[in-house]
């Protein structure tokens, strides 16, 4: 699937794949060669002029690597641990013991799907309260066993449903925010796709917060913001602009610590490369956080969030 | 918008439009004075109208005991946000002029029947009581003050949620305020959350629902997602009492529903149990 702003790239890619499939004349070989260098140039050009709304489309791209792809690509072992011990086992939020380049950790994250069946099974990546409670159970287990925590964020939102409200969606998220603030193990957060508001933040309080280059992280989806503040959901591109939701903006605002680069043309063109850079960043931080004194790390985590915000009147 | 509005039927200029109000819940016409004297609670159906921070403060703290702090903290418009109706900076200016406040919460220290506490009271009139940089900072400083002074913290919520105009910075205030609460928990300092109408989104999904004791006023609307969003998602009608405080009590997320007239004494009684220095 190609996105609207990628049309120029897609047209060249199509011609390349046509040429690659058949026996080639000398002339066609030359054409192929020049097309391959052209596609690189054009991709670079298109991707250096992305609007925030374009980036939203990339973050939601159906071929973008998802949590299960990251686990398959990064982990030599993943022992999934199910259930919140209260209500059930949320398929939109999973977690378990994981080993990444020999580093043992607790890996937690939201599941989306590539196919319709996968999407339905994972509730389109929208966790219910039991998902957040499962995540907290696993994080507390990690604290007990002194394992660092890695949270992988990719969700449009916490599920807005009747039963989600009845089982305390608010409280489940709020509890995680409160408990994660003082958990005595390192917490690494990576936003890989959509960082959808409180639903994302519910497992995103950490010592290191990273974003993939074309991930987005927002207080509200641009469509929702446009419907409220512009009274027109079609003004989503303007809302995406105003909300400052791209990795560059979040870096400037001091919300995230690092941007993980994506291959030319986005993670959906080369998932393996995107997963490899993510793995490199996670392992680097796992190794470095391991050496830190935990009491100091927890104090620094508090200060990190205490300093978030811009207001008149300096902290005394 | 309050539950009570001027009756549209009394538009003849005999002055009667200032005498009567119509209850938004039961539609009864009631003398304005009667409602005011009844703490803005409808004498016919017990509907609790929204209060300004000042009205709330006068009901909760002992006379002349409140000392506000950090009142000058206000927004700086971190995103330079402009929407379909204009710049956020302008909206904030209007809200400030309308309410006389610099942010959506007032914080300070005061006495509740002689017990010194740290208080935060949100005011829905200030941009829908939304949570943004200034709000988050004031709450965190209040929590830190409670921690330092070893005094209970009580937060009264009234909010539509995180303020969109400060984008991701508003979202982070949820984590920031909860970090403050977490430190109180570790130090065993009491934190009581009082949820008033309405408490939604980023406020209900942060400090408002993690009190040691969560209490609410009758009929307050409390939830994570708005009713319309949920109905559009599940394509079903929701129960009439959905997201009322009575509904939340039923589902186990509130310790008690307390009427406005009893709130101060109730808080005092609870504080006698959670203060570690028992009387």
SSE string of chain A, helices as H and strands as E: HHHHEEEHHEHHEHEEHHHEHHE
The count of DSSP E runs of length 2 or more, i.e. the number of strands of chain B, is 14
What fraction of the residues of chain B are assigned to beta strands by DSSP?
15-25%
Largest sheet of chain B: 8 strands, mixed
- Assign the CATH superfamily of the largest domain in chain B: 2-enoyl-CoA Hydratase, Chain A, domain 1
Q: Estimate nothing, just give the exact number of structural domains of chain B.
A: 2
Instruction: Determine the CATH superfamily of the largest domain in chain A.
Output: 2-enoyl-CoA Hydratase, Chain A, domain 1
Summing up helix and strand content along with how strands pair, one would put the structural category of chain A as: alpha/beta
> Mean pLDDT across all residues of chain A, rounded?
95
Backbone structural class of chain B: alpha/beta
Uncertain spans of chain A: none
Can you put this structure into words, describing what you see?
The complex is a heterodimer of chains A (316) and B (279). Chain A has 316 residues and is an alpha/beta fold. In chain A, 48% of the residues lie in helices and 16% in strands. Chain A has 2 domains: 4-49; 54-306, 2-enoyl-CoA Hydratase, Chain A, domain 1 (Alpha-Beta Complex). In chain A, helix 1 runs antiparallel to helix 2 (26-47), helix 6 (129-144) packs parallel to helix 8 (169-180) and helix 10 (222-230) crosses helix 11 (236-243). Chain B folds into 2 domains: 1-49, no CATH class; 50-274, 2-enoyl-CoA Hydratase, Chain A, domain 1. Chain B is built from 9 helices and 14 strands. In chain B, helix 4 runs parallel beside helix 5 (167-186). At the A-B interface, helix 7, helix 8, helix 9, helix 10 and helix 11 of A face strand 5, strand 6, helix 4, helix 5 and helix 6 of B.
């Amino acid at each position: 699937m190609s996105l609207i702003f990628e049309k120029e790239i897609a047209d060249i890619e199509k011609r390349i794949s046509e040429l690659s499939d058949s026996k080639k004349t000398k002339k066609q070989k030359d054409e192929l060669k020049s097309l391959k260098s052209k596609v690189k140039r054009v991709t670079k050009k298109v991707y250096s002029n992305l609007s925030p709304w374009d980036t939203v489309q990339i973050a939601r791209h159906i071929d973008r690597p998802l949590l299960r792809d990251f686990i398959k690509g990064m982990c030599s072992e993943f022992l999934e641990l199910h259930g919140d011990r209260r209500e059930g086992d949320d398929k939109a939020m999973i977690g378990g013991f994981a080993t990444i380049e020999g580093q043992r950790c607790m890996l937690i994250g939201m599941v989306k799907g590539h196919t319709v069946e996968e999407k339905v099974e994972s509730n389109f990546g929208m966790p219910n309260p039991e998902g957040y409670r499962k995540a907290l159970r696993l994080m507390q287990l990690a604290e007990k066993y002194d394992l660092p925590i890695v949270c992988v964020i990719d969700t449009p939102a916490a599920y807005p449903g009747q039963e989600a409200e009845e089982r305390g969606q608010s409280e489940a998220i709020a509890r995680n925010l409160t408990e994660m603030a003082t958990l005595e193990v390192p917490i690494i957060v990576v936003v890989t796709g959509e960082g959808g508001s409180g639903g994302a933040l519910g497992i995103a309080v950490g010592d290191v917060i990273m974003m993939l280059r074309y991930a987005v992280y927002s207080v509200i989806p641009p469509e929702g913001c446009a419907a409220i503040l512009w009274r027109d959901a079609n003004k989503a591109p303007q809302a995406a602009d105003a909300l400052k939701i791209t990795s560059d903006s979040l870096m400037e605002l001091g919300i995230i610590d690092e941007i993980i680069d994506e291959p030319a043309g986005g993670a959906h063109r080369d998932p393996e490369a995107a997963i490899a850079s993510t793995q490199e960043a996670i392992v680097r931080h796992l190794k470095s956080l391991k050496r830190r004194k935990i009491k100091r790390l927890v104090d620094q985590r508090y200060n990190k969030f205490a300093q978030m915000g811009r207001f008149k009147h300096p902290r005394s | 918008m309050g539950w009570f509005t001027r009756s549209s039927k009394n538009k003849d200029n005999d002055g009667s439009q200032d005498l009567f109000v119509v209850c938004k819940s039961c539609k009864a016409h009631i003398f304005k004075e009667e409602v005011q004297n009844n703490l803005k609670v409808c004498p016919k159906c017990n509907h609790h109208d929204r209060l300004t921070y000042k009205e709330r403060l006068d009901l909760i703290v002992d006379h002349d005991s409140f000392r506000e702090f950090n009142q000058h903290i206000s927004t700086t418009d971190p995103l330079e946000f402009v929407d379909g109706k204009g710049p956020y900076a302008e909206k904030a200016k209007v809200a400030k002029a309308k309410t006389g406040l610099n942010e959506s919460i007032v914080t300070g220290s005061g006495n509740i029947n002689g017990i010194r506490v740290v208080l935060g009271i949100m005011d829905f009139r200030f941009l829908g009581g939304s949570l943004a940089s200034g709000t988050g900072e004031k709450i965190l400083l209040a929590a830190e003050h409670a921690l330092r002074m070893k005094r209970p913290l009580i937060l009264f919520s009234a909010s539509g949620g995180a303020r969109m105009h400060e984008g991701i910075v508003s979202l982070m205030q949820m984590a920031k305020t909860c970090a403050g609460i977490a430190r109180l928990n570790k130090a065993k300092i009491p934190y009581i959350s009082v949820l008033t109408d309405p408490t939604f989104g980023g406020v209900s999904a942060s400090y408002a629902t993690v009190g040691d004791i969560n209490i609410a006023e009758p009929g307050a609307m409390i939830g994570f997602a708005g009713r319309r969003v949920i109905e559009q998602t599940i394509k079903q009608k929701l129960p009439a009492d959905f997201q009322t405080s009575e509904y939340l009590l039923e589902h186990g997320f509130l310790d008690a529903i307390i009427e406005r007239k009893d709130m101060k004494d109730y808080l005092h009684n609870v504080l006698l149990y959670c203060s570690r220095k028992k009387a």
